[in-house]
Amino acid sequence: MSSIRHNSPSHLSNLATIVLSLSIFMPNFALPKTLDSDIEALRSLKNGIDPYSIPPTTFLDTWDFSVDPCENTGSHFVGILCDIPSGNTSQRIVALDLNSMGYDGFLSPSIGSLTELTFLDLSKNRFRGPLPESFTRLTKITTLSLSENIFTGYIPSEITNLRWLQYLDLSKNNFIGTLPPTFVDLRQLTHVDVSYNLFFSNLPDLDALWQLTSLALDHNHFEGGLPRLPSNLRTLSLNNNLLSGRLPPTMRLPHLEALDLSNNQFTGTIGWGLLLLPSIRRINLSFNLFTSIEVFNATNMTTTLEELDASHNRIQMHLPLGLATIESMLSIHLEGNSFVGRIPPEYGARAMNSWRQLFLNDNYLEGSVPSEFKNLQREKLNGSLASNCLVCRNGHYLCEGRQRPSSECHRHG
């Protein structure tokens, strides 16, 4: 199972489209001119970028300061959107979208002068260095995407000044330090992605972010146990960190659909309550230190779980019969553990009828393979039974890769 990844939500791409469309097609009525400080902020922003990294016909290439930015939004100043705030005599820039063209440079501190900005997308460029302190003056911003740049430094505790922030994407940069404790004061947040950075230390409890539906903290160096989480979460990615400890026996996440805790150091039991979360579809717990999995009979129970990956742990037990009673299940990865005993015939029946993936290789399973497996075709079920202690028919695709030598099987038994 691949780790859960998150693309930008549709509202981000839609807003970027609106910015571009209005920049090109907005009619040129007699409107107040752009506030001088906003013009200087744009000028400073462009001057902070290597001109050799600005290809012709890109957004920044259209910024011609011989004309007024908000009065000339046809072929000039593509990527900005202006408005006239209530009681203001000048136009202000409310949205800024630099198309993802690899612009190379530093973000000017004058960005903080754009105090009416609600939308900022600088993603997929090569901005480097720390965020200027003036950044926290963008108190009206709701959408902020700085992903896939080379930003460094810490997230300032004053980030709470951005109290209307709903969408935050800082992924794929070089930010360091911790998530400041004040981070949980951003109560409007619905989407947070700070994956692929250099954050470390323990995670603060995040349950106060009650509107948050998508949280990606993966590929960092976070430590400690699992924090308290917002109950409205739908996707949670904490994979590839240094998190440890036991998972709580119950998790109050009624809307969670996808969970990825892979490549950490979690221990103990994978609880039945996790597998029965009311909306869960995909769970990835691979490459941890779990030692058992708790599964009961789910017959006649309403289940939503389709994919379970508990591979490459330290689970030493018989294959849980209860997995075959989860009616919604399609994919099971249990390879790279120390499962023992025979493969239940119920596994064979489910493999014939509904399962699409079953990987049991690299365990210590023994005995004959259930007869149902012998009639399976690769197109029906993708999987492997290799590197066990099974009596497996030569030439069958599930047995490709051979079994363990008998000496290794006896020693483990």
Account of the protein in words:
- The protein has 413 residues and is of the alpha/beta class.
- 13% of the residues lie in helices and 23% in strands.
- It has a 14-stranded mixed β-sheet, with helices on one face. A nine-stranded parallel β-sheet has the order 3-5-7-9-11-13-15-17-19.
- It starts with 9 loop residues before the first helix and ends with a helix.
Detail the topology: elements first, then pairings.
Elements: H1 10-25, H2 36-47, E1 80-83, E2 92-97, E3 104-106, E4 119-121, E5 126-130, E6 143-145, E7 150-153, E8 167-169, E9 174-177, E10 191-193, E11 198-202, E12 214-216, E13 221-224, E14 235-237, E15 242-246, E16 258-260, E17 265-270, H3 272-275, E18 282-284, E19 289-293, E20 307-309, E21 331-333, E22 340-341, H4 345-353, E23 357-359, E24 364-368, H5 371-374, E25 382-384, E26 389-391, H6 406-412
Parallel strand pairs: 2-4, 3-5, 4-6, 5-7, 6-8, 7-9, 8-10, 9-11, 10-12, 11-13, 12-14, 13-15, 14-16, 15-17, 16-18, 17-19, 18-20, 20-21, 21-23, 22-24, 23-25, 24-26
Antiparallel strand pairs: 1-2
Task: Provide a concise account of the structure shown.
The chain is an alpha/beta fold and 413 residues long. Helix content is 13%, strand content 23%. It has 6 helices and 26 strands.
Low-pLDDT sequence parts? 18-29
Distance between the termini: 29 Å
Total count of strands: 26
Give the mean pLDDT. 91
Q: Summarize the amount of helix as a percent range.
A: 10-25%
